[in-house]
Amino acid sequence: MYVFAARLQTQVLLVLFVSFFSGSGIALADQNYSQQVFFENSLSPDSYFYSSGKMAAPSMLKLNDGKLPVETYTYVSGPNALELQWESNTNGGWSVELSLYSWRNRNVDFSGDSLFLWLYSKEGIHAADLPKIALRDLDRNFTAQLSIGSFTQDLAPGKWTRVQIPMAKFATASLHAFQGRRLATIIFAQGTADGRYHTLYLDDIRIENASQNEESPSTTPKNLEAKGYERHVDLMWEAAPDPTVAQYVIYRSMNSEPFRAIGVQRYGVNRFSDYLGNPHATASYKVSARTSSLRESSLSASVTASTHPMTDDELLTMVQEASFRYYWEAAEPNSGMARENTPGDDDVIALGASGFGIMSIVVGTERGFIPREQAVDRLLRITSFLAKADRYHGVWPHFLSGHTGHTLAVFGIYDNGADLVETSFLMQGLLTARQYFSSENENERRLADNITALWRGVEWDWFCATPKKDALYWHWSPEYSFRIANRLQGWNEVMITYLLGDCIANSPRTSQSLSHWVYGGRYHPPLRSAAHVLWHAVGHELYPRFSGAAFLHALFVHGV
């Protein structure tokens, strides 16, 4: 069913945190979203960022700062649709480009056989008066125009209509062949010059196989939970795997009014954040599962939550827990480590980000977001994975495959080996976890042993690439050696690398060269100052025999 929503006075925030199924540890993320969805929602409320338009008089086209306006009253995939308003006149013209939202590492591979668009007109539009459409791929190869009206009947007034255009109907008009699987831009352009003003809403644009639109969802979302904060409500539910589901639809009721659809969440993400903007509001919610052809499951049971004023401590807890969720719930399931981004390639895990994630697990455990035993189990999974994953002189690459543990050269041919700085971020998290999870039980002792073995395996001195051995270098490739030649220097993120390298002292040469560069070079004052500040803050009372850098060495190497 399509949605006519009362005008929403609040914004709906889509929180792309991935939920896990209760007890299973399975996490879904991108699934087929990247290979099917071209447009679902605009994150900006006034105009669609990934659009542009131009017109030539006497034709007219409505734009907002050169971009296509957003409609927040009538939509298929809430909370908004695209608004296309035009007047086509003889000797004039207009065109609008919708560009694909290309997040980092998006795999653009639209394998479907048809382009689907939902269209709506309040007054109705004759098929002959609809715009023309053309496509362009990532390599800027393009097609000839087609008339949208050739693939639909007249649009009935006040009714959403789904239009299917077979991809095979688009003929190449560029020098080289248009590649539909690499679709990057949809172009709408002036059609019949009828001299009339038209308004057309567009929503939920997808490239799918026609056959997949014939099935209905097999299950209804269950165990819906709602938690109110100061100005928003967080929703979480459970849903069984179902490849027919394209979206979850969130319904809300306030002040005993009927439930209305306020937004959607993509398949594989079982969370939604509804921003109410009012610290004294009460709302009830239901959730359904829906296919892209709008075949919908029954609604879940209703839950109710209220917003309330929060203290500073409550605000801090809310922010910490929300940040923790990404690393805990959106982790790659085999490795337990942090994905590079979501939506994105489900298999790409980032080593530095995983170090931040391990830090967040420590915080989550201390704040009671997860039981301590679950945290240790996750860290044992991470350290076991890291022990078997690709390493180069003890140093991991920037990115690994979560499935195989092998290197992924995301940044190019020469970045196919060790990344010393990302490894430092990972080690920083692991050492923090070793210090925190220090109870006298078998699992925590095993965790400490795992981390110590990983820590001692890093050959820091290998990355002193020059004969002078006066600095560390960021990358090393087993095939291209130190070709990237990125010397670590500056008062910035790389300082942790020198600090950790100086602490472990795998060999006399490591200790001598790193200590000479850090403490004898131009970074001597800030590093020495930082060491003494830390010692005076926590070390001098507990470990009076150490001072400054000696305290840091003892802290990281011996776990004082």
Short structural description:
The chain has nine helices and 26 strands.
What does this structure look like?
The protein has three domains: 32-213, Jelly Rolls, CATH 2.60.120; 216-308, Sandwich (Immunoglobulin-like), CATH 2.60.40.10; 314-461, no CATH class. Helices cover 24% and strands 23% of the residues. The chain has nine helices and 26 strands. It has helices at residues 312-329, 351-366, 372-388, 420-436, 442-456, 495-504, 508-520, 524-542, 548-558; strands at residues 3-4, 12-13, 37-39, 51-56, 60-61, 70-71, 74-75, 81-87, 93-99, 114-120, 132-137, 146-147, 161-166, 183-189, 197-208, 222-228, 232-238, 247-254, 260-266, 271-275, 282-290, 303-306, 348-350, 399-401, 418-419, 475-476. β18 (247-254) and β19 (260-266) form a beta hairpin. α3 packs parallel to α5 and α6 packs across α9. The longest helix is centred in the C-terminal third of the chain and has 19 residues, at 524-542. The termini are far apart.
